[in-house]
Amino acid sequence: MKVLLSILREYADVGDDQDVIAAALNTLGLAVESIEVVGTPVDGVVTARVLRTQKHPEADRVTRVWVDSGDGIEKHVWCGATNMKENDIVALATIGTTMPDGRDIARRGILGIDSEGMLCSAIELGLGDDTSGIMIFAPDTQLGLSPFAILEIERDVLFDLDLTRNRPDCWGHLGVARDLAAHFQIPMRKANTFAAGKSVGPSASVDIVRDDRCAMFSVQVISGIKVAPSPNWVVSRLHALGMRSINNVVDASNLVMLELNQPNHAYDADVVNSFRIRCAHEKETIVTLDGVTRILHADDLLICNAADDSAVGLAGVMGGQESEITDSTTVLALEIAAFVADPIRFTANRHGLRSEASARFERGVDPEGVRGAIDRFVTILSHTCPLVSLCGEPVVARASNQANPAAIELRLSEIERVLSVRLDSSSAIQILSGIGFNCVVNTGNRAETINVQVPSWRPDCTIEVDLIEEIARHYGYEKIGKRVPKSAVHGRLSVFQQRRRQLRRVLLGLGLDEAMPSPFLAPGDLALAGLNESNVLVIANPLVTEESVLRTSLRPGLLNAIRYNLSHRAQRIALWEIGHVYPRGSQALPDEAEMLCVLVAHADVSEAAKQWNMIADSLGIGANIEQSRVPDGLHPTRSATLSRGKTVLGVIGEIDPGVLAAFGIDCRVSCLEINLSTVLAEMAQPAQAKDLNRFPSSDIDLSFVLEDSSTALSLQRALRQAAGSQLVSIELFDVYRGTGVDASARSLTFRLRLQMPADTLTESDIAGIRDKCIGAALKIGAVLRS
Amino acid sequence: MASDTSSSSAALSAVVAGALAAMKSAPTTDALKAALAQALGKKGELSILKASLGKITDADERREFGQLINSATEAITAASNERRSELENVERDAQIGRERLDITELLLAPSATQRQGRMHLVTQSTERLEDVFIGLGFQIAEGPEVESDFYNFEALNMPPSHPARSMWDTLFIDADPQGSVVLRTHTSPVQIRIMQEWPPPIYAIMPGRVFRRDTPDATHMPVFHQIEGLVIDKNITFADLAGTIEAFTQAFFGSDFTSRLRPSYFPFTEPSAEFDIRRPDGTWIELGGCGMVHPSVLQAGGLDPQEWSGFAFGFGIDRMAKERHGVGDLRDMYSNDVRFLGQFT
User: Fold this and answer.
1) Domain count, chain A
2) Residue B125, SS3?
3) Domain for residue A685, yes or no?
4) Is A244 in the same domain as A142?
5) What is this structure's pTM?
6) Do the domain assignments include residue B116?
7) How far is A521 from chain B (nearest CA, A)?
8) Is the pLDDT of residue A133 over 90?
9) Can you give the pLDDT at residue A101?
10) Among the three residues B42, B75, B110, which one is the final residue of a domain in this structure?
């Protein structure tokens, strides 16, 4: 929302120090996005009369012009425009002038003939957006004057405000000025209203059919209109505020909206003067002012000519073309209305037509602002239509169930409870009444309260805390003070969070980098990774289809990251991610779970085995390694499911060669996945100390030949069981395949450390354990290697 | 007898001289050991002479000769020790010479250059923020990233079709009814969840991933991270909010940083504010939003707004990491390029 300092100053004398005003606006929560100085006169530019013009035979794109700027001295300039003729009054930038765009006007020549200045267009002087040619002034314009003085253009300051949703009133200059006046503790200026005459004209009528959608609709018939261009000050203000000047009537209408946050519409009263406000019939159409034919929806509110029920405007959004004022209009019907906010937004969105009016209606306008808006409209028009007069009183129709502004009981104790600021009732009243809230001290209760009547322009204020926020804004956030509350709880990580951090440190120690791929996948990504894609959630309004599926596995994202890094010839690609997956569940929300995935390029399953051992040891977790349950998407003979009974904790292995090929990855990739929602939630019991055994220990090494169909773990278990309580540790320290061992088997050498808790092992003790181990191994098919 | 003694003395002198010479010239510790054994060993030359002591009948002579043998033993032992020390020094020097390694070669070797892994910048920043808030007495809460309309909007004082919902470009899940499930647009739904689950008082922060329908550019990502704070207690005021923001600012950025609050609007807080951080050089960083928890939000969380009051604040983590590490383009942070990841220990 743009506001001009000149307009603000018409409502309150806020001074002219733009920095002080900007600071005040920021303090009030009307955040200043930018400040721009506009209308600064360009020194060195003066009006001049064209004495004669002449084409040069060798320069067909430019014209020679001789001018006099009032001092009787003839000056010659070259000019690229062609719209001037003898005796026209033009703007001459004399030598030494610095133009707004930074150009310096110097004595420059074409074909050896000097130019003693430049004739200016409006846009070159920052006086509008007319690029059609140089500026031509009225024939009676005095020579040698600044065009800025002639056009009554004053230096002005434009503030661009980033308004919050709760301040509809500040969509007009009046609201901003009201806040500033309260802040600076200065009075609001009384409006300088034109005393319009009374006259007789067509009588207006209003019929609100849908009073659930229209709180108020008023019409004032105004006569004495002569459609003409607007005065310069109107044009330049509108221009600065980002609107184009159309004519005096439309411009007055727009300026009233910008100043008072009161969108309004002027109809030709000879075309329409009786109004009906109803919703559209399905498929009804209207041609809006922008010339577009709109096919309407049954929820679109229309303003209709009651005479024939034809639509003359899309309520709150844009007027219709048919009832537009024309150059021959002499009597107006001025509409000032208040529509119910939300449906205006829906209509504007439906038609992709967000106008200055709809932006204001969807936030809320003042339903009591009719009189002020009419007065301001007439006052602006009086500059071009001195005979403007009001035909009777405005016809004001109100919805039967119109919501009144809230009356709120404000407790002083509540102000203190929320802000820790103790205000007496007069201080609180001073603040609130300064911004238009009517306050009466409630003497009935023992507790001090104030009865506050919310003004009609603040529909956002409905409850007590809304008033407390107003008080805080005007009291000043910076004056409220700072104190640190003493936390009533013990600050710490939960067990889950502690274990997650511990896991991160283990992963870092393993030399693995944390990646953060997008949780959005392309349709087919999961299938490409060999994973089930039937239980996914899909984004209804994705930015791109490639990011429309919510992941149910971290693997596709990391596989893409591996491919990316391989393509950049990265040498060590070892990535992990801890993140959520979102498989569809039986409830509305997915069965969201936190997962770990580790992928290492150029690594086989042994890398994943090392990682699992380290993680399992660090977190004190265990799992069955089920190689018979091949996880989806992993190498069928080099992978296993990590499980506990029916619960799947994760997977360990290598990515399936087919998946690697599908992702364009040409090396082995190890894979470890663990469901952290399960394992991090487990609370490890504190380890209990064991007495240190001071008796000597003995090691025995046993080598067995075991068929590949049996696991090393099964042999280790058998040995562990056979060795019994004397076994301190068992370690697989050699695996051998090759000469002397069948092709379908391998030799496994275990080293067992034996120790008795309270005695020294004898040779025969050791021999006995050795025999038991050999026997147990044989039972599972492991033959001692001689 | 005197001749016996004198011949023995002569033999002793010869043994001593011979032993000392042998030791002095012993080329190795092993040769030294052999020379010592030859002189002092069980069957060594001195032992033989010692054995002859018994044959000396005169007590004085015997004592005298015994003393001679003892001094000879001491002399030989001393010579041996001296030589051993010499030889050991030589051998140690030789060993040390042999064992020379170029440490830089080892440092450059592949097995030594394997580095520690790296945490993502967002995780690093999150942990740092968590630690600061733990120090201020906060706990850490987490919640689902796919949320219901209720937690993401309605409970946060934005009933269906509330205009403020358009403050966030929301990604919706294809669900029945349409619009009922969203990718959470902020971490604020966790506020409601913990109000419902944790008995007050609550001092908690809620870091997490959030989603907006934003086209990625240098400063925006559709998936990014926020941290949210919530305090619910009796007699919590706006001053507590301002003080907590200030305490956080100084703990996280440094004691020469300060903070300020500016009025703003959020549907779930009132009064609401933006908070800015002032750098020591006087420039300001706009950090996030905050405010007193709106009474409707307390009610949605099952708390009586007349009994409990509180404040909430939130800001983006990604931008903070971006600033701290001078990352020019937010998209680099999510490229998963190991050349990028590897830079940040």
Assistant:
1) 6
2) helix
3) no
4) no
5) 0.86
6) no
7) 13
8) no
9) 84
10) B110
B241 lies in the same domain as B134: yes
Could you write out the three-class secondary structure of B282-338?
CCEEEEEEEEEECHHHHHHCCCCCCCCEEEEEEEEHHHHHHHHHCCCCHHHHCCCCH
ipTM: 0.87
A777, burial (CB in 10 Å: exposed 0-12, middle 13-18, buried 19+): buried
Its domain, for residue B94, covers 2-110
Q: Is the pLDDT of residue B2 over 80?
A: no
Worst-scoring range by mean pLDDT, A152-156, A196-200, B16-20, B237-241? A152-156
Cβ-defined contact of B203 to A473 (cutoff 8 Å) = no
pLDDT tens, position by position, A614-673: 999 999 999 999 999 999 999 999 999 999 988 999 999 999 999 999 999 999 999 999
Is the CB of A463 inside 8 Å of chain B's CB atoms? yes
Model confidence at A129: pLDDT above 70: no
Are the CB atoms for A356 and A263 separated by under 8 Å? yes
- 3-state DSSP call for residue B247? helix
Report pLDDT digits (tens) over A548-564: 999 999 999 999 999 99
* B321 phi-psi bin (left φ>0, alpha ψ -120 to 50, beta other): alpha
> Does residue A365 lie in a domain region?
yes
Short-list A74, A184, A90, CA closest to A139: A90
Residues A447, A299: Cα–Cα separation, whole Å: 48
Q: How far apart are CA A368 and CA A458, in angstroms?
A: 11
Q: How confident is the model at residue A112 (pLDDT cuts 50, 70, 90)?
A: confident
Among chain A residues, CA nearest to B170 = A541
CB A78 within 8 A of CB A110: yes
- The arrangement of strands across the sheet holding A264-268 comes to A197-199, A389-398, A214-223, A332-339, A264-268
* Residues across chain A: 786
Q: Which long-range contacts (CB under 8 A, 24 or more apart) does B277-286 make?
A: B277/B249, B277/B253, B279/B253, B280/B254, B280/B256, B284/B260, B285/B323
Task: Kindly state the tokens that stand for A316.
Answer: 């709150």
Q: What tokens were used for A61?
A: 């794109």
Same domain, A414 and A466: yes
Q: Which of A660, A647, A773 is nearest to A722 (CA)?
A: A773
- Nearest-CA distance from B134 to chain A in Å? 4
Give the separation between CA A358 and CA A347, rounded to whole angstroms.
9
CA distance A532 to chain B (A): 19
Parallel/antiparallel/unpaired status of strands B139-140 and B202-211: parallel
Q: Crossing angle of helices A412-419/B238-252, nearest 10°?
A: 10
Nearest CB among A362, A488, A541 relative to B171 is that of: A541
- Which whole number is the average pLDDT over A532-542? 95
Q: Secondary structure of chain B: what % helix, strand, coil (to 5)?
A: 50, 20, 30
Is the distance from CB of A575 to CB of A608 less than 8 angstroms? no
Same domain, B263 and B212: yes
Q: Give the Cα separation of B26 and B266 in Å (integer).
A: 95
Q: What is the distance between the alpha carbons of residues A241 and A233, in angstroms, rounded to a whole number?
A: 12
Residue A363 to residues A208, A373, A374, A493: CA-CA distances in angstroms? Answer: 21, 18, 21, 44
* DSSP 3-state of A654: strand
Contact residues, A window 17-76, toward B, CB-based 8 Å cutoff: 26-29, 31
Diameter over CA atoms, chain B: 133
Over residues A722-736, the pLDDT tens digits come to: 999 999 999 999 999
* Pairing between β-strand A389-398 and β-strand A197-199 as defined by DSSP bridges: parallel
| Binary contact (A568, B133; C-beta < 8 A) | no
CA A104 from chain centre, in angstroms, equals 42
- Judge whether A704 and A777 are in contact, CB under 8 Å: yes
pLDDT by residue (tens digit) across A214-261? 999 999 999 999 999 998 889 889 989 999 889 999 999 999 999 999
Residue B4: the pLDDT is 58
Q: What does the alpha-carbon distance between residue A106 and residue A713 come to, in Å, rounded to a whole number?
A: 94
